[in-house]
Amino acid sequence: MSTRPIVAASPDSIAVVTLDATMEERITELLRRYPTTRAALLPMLWLCQERYGWISPGVMRAVASRLGESPAFVEGVVSFYTMYHTRPPARYVLQVCTTLSCAYCGGRELVEHLKGRLGIGFGEKTPDGEFQLMAVQCLGACGDAPVVQINDDYYENLDVTSLDKVLDELAGRR
Ligand code: FES
Fold first, then answer.
1. Does 158 sit in the ligand 1 pocket, CB within 6 Å?
2. Which CATH class is domain 92-171?
3. d(C-alpha 174, C-alpha 172), whole Å
4. Mutate which of 82, 96, 99 to test ligand 1's pocket (most atoms within 8 Å of Cβ)?
5. FRET pair for 164, CA 20 to 30 Å: which of 25, 50, 70, 106?
6. CB 141 less than 6 A from any atom of ligand 1
7. Which CATH number fits domain 12-80: 1.25.40, 3.30.70, 2.40.160, 1.10.10?
8. Parts of the chain belonging to CATH 3.40.30.10
9. Are 17 and 61 in contact (CB under 8 A)?
């Protein structure tokens, strides 16, 4: 299993963000591929999330400044997409597809099982910061329903047993 844990920067450490030379190099490369700076916003946010683990207000301000956009515009985009974390996430974020194909192919059972096993509801983290549960809409893999995305990886055709195996392995990495 290749799922990499998220390492989230502390809120204090990214309250104010200065994009360093490495980030600048990657951003410059990104901007070359898009017709306008605004068009590069989503991949730039993704780049920042890879680096810091989440998108803090400080990150939003730095991105807005770099692209010549207002912080409010950037915040509006960030808040629209579930893929961007606006608070420090758990090491493993479980995005459970709750759309029809998944729901009817066992997704509802997975949701109930996850809530029971982890002792949390959607939008919550376990007290040890290991797991976080999110309800999301179609992940675009309906043919292999039910689907749970954990960090950057898809886990498909799941049932309670196979999902437990994945969670056991992730929990055992501590
Ligand atoms: S309905 Fe779950 S991936 Fe499409």
1. no
2. alpha beta
3. 6
4. 99
5. 50
6. yes
7. 1.10.10
8. 92-171
9. yes
Atom of ligand 1 nearest to the CA of 146: 2
136 lines ligand 1 (CB under 6 A): no
Q: Is 110 near ligand 1, meaning CB less than 6 Å away?
A: no
Determine if ligand 1 sits within 6 Å of the CB of residue 135: no
Of all residues in the chain, the percent with pLDDT exceeding 70 is 99
Q: Is the CB of 97 under 6 A from ligand 1?
A: yes
Q: Could you please report the per-residue DSSP string of 64-103?
A: HHHHT--HHHHHHHHHH-TTS-SSPPPSEEEEEE-SHHHI
Q: What is the pLDDT of residues 76-121, one digit of tens each?
A: 999 999 889 999 999 999 999 999 999 999 999 999 999 999 999 9
Tokens 């502390």, residue located: 10
